[in-house]
Amino acid sequence: AASAQTLNFQAEVKQLLHLMIHSLYSNREIFLRELVSNASDACDKLRFEALDTPALYESDSELKIRIDFDSSARTITIADNGIGMSRDEAIAHLGTIAKSGTKEFFGKLTGDQKKDAHLIGQFGVGFYSAFIVADKVTVLSRRAGLDAAEGVKWECAMTGESAGEYSVQAVDKASRGTEITLHLREGQEDLLSGWKLKSLIRKYSDHIVQPIVMRKEEWDEEKKEQVLRDEYETINQANALWTRSRNDISDDEYKAFYKHVGHDYDEPLAWTHSRVEGRHEYTQLLYVPAHAPFDMWDRNAKHGVKLYVKRVFIMDDAEKLLPAYLRFVRGVVDSADLPLNVSREILQESKDIDTIRAGCTKKILGLLEDLATSEEAGDKEKYATFWKEFGKVLKEGVGEDFANKDKVAGLLRFASTKADTPEETVSLADYISRMKEGQDKIYYVTAETFNAAKNSPHLEIFRKKGIEVLLLSDRVDEWVIGNLPEFDGKPLVSVAKGGLDLGALEDEAEKKEAEKAADDYKELLEKMKASLGERVKDVKVTLRLTDSPACLVADEHDMGMNLARILKAAGQ
Ligand code: ADP
Ligand code: MG
Q1: Rounded Cα–Cα distance for residues 213 and 267 (Å)
Q2: Is the model's pTM score more than 0.95?
Q3: Helices (H), 340-440
Q4: β strands within 185-318, DSSP E
Q5: Measured in angstroms, how far is the CA atom of residue 392 from the centroid of ligand 2?
Q6: pLDDT tens, residue by residue, 290-326
Q7: Rounded CA separation 255/330 (Å)
Q8: How far is the CA of 125 from the centre of ligand 2 (A)?
Q9: Mutation pick for ligand 1 pocket among 41, 44, 180, 317 (CB with most ligand atoms within 8 Å)
Q10: Residues by chain with Cβ below 5 Å of ion ligand 2
Q11: How far apart, in whole angstroms, are the C-alpha atoms of residue 173 and residue 157?
């Protein structure tokens, strides 16, 4: 055989390995879920590539995942007959981390094991989790379509506590796919048990579409122990979870499936599962995660919905399936109408996809609405979590999704003068339900920070009259409001703009007083205007202040001052 070549891990891999072993030790069981998940992905990829190139099956088209253990050698082996890896792929995929958000991830680590364990989970654990339980990992792989002689052996042993390098070597591998052997660390012997491994598979990988097989076991009366037979049996349910009926799926199964498709280690916040029949036929199983991914603001970040056609995996990251402002959603859409050879280009034009997208959007907005309005214990908190994690992204929908603008607007939450705290808990509907007798507008103030908004002199008259005002201080708020002239028939009005016509909220005596004051101080106003010159449009007497002597106001038809400030800062 060819001699082995030694290569160095990318620095981030070394760091991740070290962290993982130390922080995730108490969750060591996840290694099996991660490796089975990779084997399943590899089978999906093969099935998809084989649509065009059936020869890739090499007369072995029953895709499956096999798990074996050997007590005397102290090894566990996870094998699949999926797509496999070439030598270059093994180096690229098992020696580096290609995920977007890697830098942010490493920047957020604290050194506190508990916190970091959580972060690693969010980042995605993956292949390297093998090293939690193993001090040496051997990968044998051959990519589908390559010759048996083009197999690759990848191997990495921990020396002491760390691994800095791995080796690759060309080997013969008759069967296509990947075989990963874990040489267990001291103290991991309990994993060398059929019963233990089977229970882990049922717990974490029951939903995997391909059969996961293990040797049958038999009680040997003489030896007084379980002995392995040559025959294999299927351990998991081995069907696509989303094709089953909702009533037959437990919450735990939904959650386990989420961890697989969402590459997340936490539980989802909520999900929606439904089958659409009629002119278009498709199934959607969509999840809202409990936390934002690292790369939510990365324009090139992957979207999280996988597209299947009649249970055949077509693509990850099908960005056309949901609008950009719902890019945090994870899950699966399985269409019965699209052609199996559908490409990204075809998707761009497809009317079927437009229908699916509209349907998925409606489902997710409905799910969020239900969470927000539900009286069930815990749901209100869930919505608050959702808003904290994804509110900023959802806001984009007000400007981007004309058809659902009102629905999205209904999901927005704001801080207001009612509580006077930065917590964003007030919906526009809440606001309207609390409007004063005679009030017909929704008032808001925008500023660069919550405190600036809260202390705005423009609020004085509103506070005096007990009128609630929304306090907006997110950078995008001005833009959001600009796209939302009204809600439920009530115009949204800035307290910092124009003549501030309080309508029926104004009292006659005050009005008279103001008119008189304007008359009395005419000369003074003229003088001030003259000395301020170009810098102001007008100087007026106002009723809107109770404590402050003066304030700046934007003209009714001009852009808000906060927006003007943002544009100026952006150099416009
Ligand atoms: P992820 O699954 O999120 O991409 P992993 O760390 O789990 O990250 O795996 C890294 C990569 O290694 C995979 O994307 C895949 O390209 C490759 N890989 C891992 N296991 C297998 C396997 N059993 N068959 C083929 N490729 C694999
Ligand atoms: Mg993986």
Answers
A1: 27
A2: no
A3: 344-349, 351-373, 379-400, 405-411, 428-433
A4: 212-220, 225-234, 270-276, 282-288, 304-309, 312-315
A5: 29
A6: 998 777 776 666 668 999 988 888 887 777 899 999 9
A7: 12
A8: 7
A9: 41
A10: 38, 126
A11: 22
